[in-house]
């Protein structure tokens, strides 16, 4: 059981007015009670701690991550890429698909601006994430029409891209608000361990979910396209369940949160100016690192699965097994990285592991269809990839939370970081999609080499980023 420090309290509200203390739901409460519970539990700007409410919220957030992972497995990565490839999508279209969530991140500052002017993180997120989950049922209907020869394959590809664009747009409008919500609920000194645990549960779900769904799609008697429509239906149901768990989490009032969380960290709340980050040189250094890093990573990342499925001709069930190995390694290493980050700092972990991540694209150059590659080299490569990438994901998020100020303007920091990430990632995937088609450039192999070099270059600005609570980077380097 995590020991939680107290500096905030929860009070019950009805129609957004504070009235009485809320008793948190226990683990046996039905999801049907979520709406009733959701009308309560706002964080007050002062008073004593209520540790049980925080624990209940973190438990609900963990369950949310499990079911949202099921949704993400079906609507992204290898399963969605395989679906589009079966419809005849080109590498450029796959690059567009990978660039969509990153382009949508440009709307995160808008979402942060709107969310900071509400009085409920919970209900704002519910309104923007619900359409993002439900919209995929349109694609299910489209696949049914395709099976009845009412639509052509290219039309279905266009539908998929448009639905992906809209759903990621909705998600981008709520992402910064969600991060701000979690930054309040999770005490600073426990973030490494809690998010390590939360991400481990999500990746454990991914470990079992991806190969099972991939095997189902591969061996379904009605064909892979029809099977994917059934997978999408399951994913939408899982997405609804994940939102139900969000309704069980204690709500946060952005108007009061800046005063409520100041005692926890000892920080002085920043004025609620949306563009505070423009005067924060430390954060601007981080943005420069983050943007270049996302460009370098996404120059090659979306094309690993394309390389296996299209260029090498491997079966989807085989590729999903590799993905499960990636998730398994991620699960095993997340708790270790979380504890290490709490001990030595997130910046040091990012620098050390970033060098390893930079070398990974080079290790793909020797991959082919021989037995050594299929049964040994590729599994080891995915295990290494999952182990290293878990540190990058965890520590990047924690470093953002550490360097962002306390207060309402924190959402603008998170949203700006996501927008810069989206810009770099979208440029990377789009550039990679075009470069991979030119034989004179070396195809995907040349793309992997360029990505490795740029990843190393991207680490240089991170050396000069200062992490609060750690020694100055000019004095101590990893």
UniProtKB/TrEMBL annotation:
Topological category with respect to the lipid bilayer: Multi-pass membrane protein
UniProt entry keywords in alphabetical sequence: Membrane, Transmembrane, Transmembrane helix
Record-annotated membrane-spanning stretches: 94-114, 134-151, 157-181, 202-221, 227-248, 287-308, 314-337, 349-367, 373-392, 413-435, 441-465
Intracellular or extracellular location(s): Cell membrane
Span of domain Major facilitator superfamily (MFS) profile: 277-478
Pfam families (alphabetical): MFS_1
The protein's name in its UniProt record: MFS transporter
Organism: Hydrococcus rivularis NIES-593
């Amino acid at each position: 059981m995590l020991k939680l420090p107290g500096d905030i309290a929860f009070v019950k509200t009805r129609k957004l007015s504070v009235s009485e203390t809320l008793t948190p739901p226990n683990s046996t409460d039905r999801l049907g009670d979520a709406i009733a519970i959701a009308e309560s539990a706002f964080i007050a700007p002062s008073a004593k701690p209520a540790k049980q409410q925080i624990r209940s919220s973190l438990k609900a957030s963990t369950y949310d991550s499990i079911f949202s992972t099921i949704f993400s497995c079906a609507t992204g990565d290898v399963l969605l890429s395989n679906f589009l490839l079966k419809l005849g999508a080109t590498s450029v279209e796959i690059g567009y698909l990978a660039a969509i969530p990153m382009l949508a991140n440009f709307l995160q500052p808008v979402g942060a601006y709107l969310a900071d002017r509400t009085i409920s993180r919970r209900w704002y997120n519910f309104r923007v994430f619900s359409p993002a989950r439900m919209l995929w049922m349109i694609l299910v209907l489209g696949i049914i029409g395709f099976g009845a020869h009412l639509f052509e394959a290219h039309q279905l590809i266009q539908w998929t891209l448009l639905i992906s664009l809209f759903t990621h747009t909705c998600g981008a409008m709520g992402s910064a608000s969600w991060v701000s919500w979690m930054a309040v609920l999770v005490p600073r000194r426990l973030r490494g361990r809690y998010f390590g645990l939360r991400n481990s549960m999500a990746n454990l779900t991914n470990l079992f979910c991806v190969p099972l769904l991939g095997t189902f799609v591969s061996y379904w008697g009605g064909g892979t396209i029809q099977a994917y429509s059934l997978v999408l239906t399951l994913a939408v149901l899982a997405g609804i369940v994940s939102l139900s768990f969000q309704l069980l989490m204690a709500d946060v009032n952005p108007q009061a949160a800046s005063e409520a969380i100041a005692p926890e960290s000892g920080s002085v709340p920043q004025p609620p100016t949306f563009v505070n980050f423009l005067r924060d040189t430390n954060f601007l250094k981080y943005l420069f690192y983050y943007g270049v890093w996302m460009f370098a990573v996404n120059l090659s990342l979306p094309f690993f699965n394309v390389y296996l499925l299209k260029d090498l001709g491997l079966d989807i069930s085989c590729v999903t097994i590799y993905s499960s190995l990636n998730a398994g390694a991620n699960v095993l290493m997340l708790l270790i990285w979380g504890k290490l980050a709490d001990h030595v700092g997130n910046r040091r972990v990012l620098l050390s592991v970033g060098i390893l991540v930079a070398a990974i694209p080079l290790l793909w150059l020797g991959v082919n269809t021989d037995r050594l590659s299929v049964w040994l080299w590729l599994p080891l490569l995915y295990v290494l990839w999952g182990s290293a990438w878990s540190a990058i994901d965890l520590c990047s998020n924690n470093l953002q939370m550490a360097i962002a100020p306390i207060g309402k303007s924190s959402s603008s920091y998170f949203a700006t970081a996501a927008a810069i990430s989206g810009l770099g990632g979208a440029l990377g995937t789009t550039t990679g999609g075009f470069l991979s088609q030119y034989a004179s450039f070396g195809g995907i192999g040349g793309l992997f080499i360029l990505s490795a070099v740029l990843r190393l270059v991207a680490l240089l600005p991170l050396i000069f980023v200062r992490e609060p609570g750690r020694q100055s980077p000019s004095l101590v380097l990893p």
